Amino acid sequence: MTCEITLFVNPTAGRGRGARAAQPAASALREAGFSVRTVLGENAEDALSRARAAVAAGTGALIAVGGDGMAGLALQAVAGTGTPLGLVAVGTGDDFARALGLPVRSPAAAGRLIADALKGGRLRDIDLGRVGDRWFGTVLASGFDSRVNDRGNRMRRPAGRLKYDLAMLAELAAFRPFPYRITFDDGAVHEVEATLVAVGNGSSYGGGMRICPGADLTDGLFDVTVVGDCSRRTLLRVFPAVYRGGHVDHPKVTVHRAAKVEIAAEGITGYADGEPLGALPLTARCVPAAVRVVGP
């Protein structure tokens, strides 16, 4: 492995934590003997182009500094290439880093762990989800949760997580289940009224909500969590259990496992790794061993 590695930095992640985190992470990597160059970019498209150029030039690893959005962007550069991906997680949710067992909001510790893993060859291949040409590492969300994202993204104020808490309250006031058509790779078709459908390569989204608690990054399958036609009261009662994964025991919740799934519903946007994918219908495929990651 070359001793030159690339930091892929989002300076705006976590209200500026991305920019502040790059320096201690880079220092830890340099102290371990690595040569570090930094990739920024004028926008997401430019940054991705620069990251892909670094990968094509043979960088020893691409280290994303930021949140789940930055991790998701980095996946587009490294998936299928064999170039290792490391994460210095300093975003709001950081669910992909949690799934990989990496430190969260501790850039120096993350830098040291990544350096040790690269020097010791502690790399592993994990699955990714793919929708069209877009890769994702954690969860494809649709339904109530994606409507909350839609509303929160339209709100200018307040900033941070509070904006999405307020968006959730507003969506609860207008709450209704949605008619879904879900098609699995075995040909089974489910037409259901559902509050949400989550396609999990990883287990959590939203900063630790374990919506697909049984998801395994190495089994070649998605866990698809379907929350049925809950009332508002039932949803409020079940929601707190999502943080420990206990919601899957509720009779309104079913979990399916599949390597491919199509989800269709009118007026619903799909989000993956916290970023919009587009309107349903969407078809997701689980691609085994699609990316090499650095970590424990």
UniProtKB/TrEMBL annotation:
Biological processes per GO annotation: phospholipid biosynthetic process
Domain DAGKc positions: 1-135
Keywords: ATP-binding, Kinase, Lipid biosynthesis, Lipid metabolism, Magnesium, Metal-binding, Nucleotide-binding, Phospholipid biosynthesis, Phospholipid metabolism, Transferase
Pfam families reported for this sequence: DAGK_cat, YegS_C
InterPro entries: ATP-NAD_kinase_N, Diacylglycerol/lipid_kinase, Diacylglycerol_kinase_cat_dom, Lipid_Phosphate_FormReg, NAD/diacylglycerol_kinase_sf, YegS/DAGK_C
Cofactor: Mg(2+)
Listed GO CC annotations: plasma membrane
Annotated GO MF terms: ATP binding; ATP-dependent diacylglycerol kinase activity; metal ion binding
Transport in keyword set: no
Residues spanning the signal sequence: none
SUPFAM superfamilies, per the entry: NAD kinase/diacylglycerol kinase-like (SSF111331)
Database matches in NCBIfam families: PRK11914.1, YegS/Rv2252/BmrU family lipid kinase
Similarity remark: Belongs to the diacylglycerol/lipid kinase family.
Protein name: DAGKc domain-containing protein
Native source organism of the sequence: Streptomyces glaucescens
